[in-house]
Specification:
There is one protein chain. By secondary structure, the chain is an alpha/beta fold. It is built from 6 helices and 9 strands; from the N terminus they run βββαββαβαααβαββ. The strands form 2 sheets. It has a 5-stranded parallel sheet, with helices on both faces. It has a 4-stranded antiparallel sheet with strand order 2-1-4-5, with helices on one face. β4 and β5 form a beta hairpin. The longest helix has 18 residues.
């Protein structure tokens, strides 16, 4: 179990010698803590490092200075730990990527069940129920390549909920959604957070997921 994520003096390696050039903020070049059970909004203007922040947390990039501590495991910038991050994304951090990372040839339910089959967390009946709740009843068995961006975004959100986790990271989760769907997503997220006590980290460049945030952090 990971009960906290601590970023200590993190910065993009390219800006290590000139931190003012590299998005000085509450996240970079300072110490920031995220705790299980709490909700955080990480808000950023374009080009302020949001994508880098998400990639560092997921282990998709390690070109940073400083360190990130996941529970009792500390990783320094440049350190490679592929096996650790594979396990982290399977058991501890559920991620909704900004670009969704869906398999276009697979149906909506198949995309979600791929994740669930790895973890045994969520039965197909529950997956179908969640997709239906988000207005996708008529699209559950259609290939994701045929779905609109907003529909794909909802599939990616359900996939993030279909695994065990200590933290849920949602990268711009409502960029293609109307307020009605955003409210449903928010309610589903709150139910999941209350059920498992997960920490929630949501990013935004202006269009906020309507949610009760314990802390709003600026990039």
């Amino acid at each position: 179990m990971i009960d906290s994520i601590i970023l200590d003096n993190l910065n993009l390696k390219a800006f290590a010698g000139a931190p003012i050039s590299g998005a000085p903020s509450q996240v970079f070049t300072s110490k920031v803590e995220f705790h299980k059970g709490a909700s955080y909004l990480v808000e950023a203007g374009s080009g302020r490092g949001k994508s880098s922040f998400c990639a560092f947390l997921c282990g998709l990039r390690n070109d940073y200075t400083g360190s990130i501590t996941f529970g009792n495991k500390t990783l320094n910038g440049g350190e490679k730990s592929a096996s650790f991050f594979v396990q982290l994304r399977r058991e501890s951090i559920a991620v909704m990527f900004q670009d969704y990372k869906l398999f276009p040839e697979l149906t909506a339910v198949e995309n979600v069940m791929l994740k669930s089959q790895l973890t045994g967390y969520c039965p197909e009946s529950e997956v179908r129920s969640m997709l239906t709740r988000l207005g996708l009843a008529g699209h559950i068995d259609r290939p994701c390549a045929t779905l609109s961006l907003g529909q794909q975004q909802r599939v990616a959100f359900v996939r993030a909920l279909a695994q065990p986790c200590d933290f849920i990271l949602l990268d711009e989760p409502i960029s293609h959604l109307d307020m009605a769907n955003a409210e449903i997503m928010s309610a589903m997220l709150k139910e999941r957070q209350q059920k498992d006590g997960a920490g929630v980290i949501v990013t935004s460049i202006g269009n906020r997921l309507p949610y009760e945030y314990d802390n709003i952090i600026k990039l």
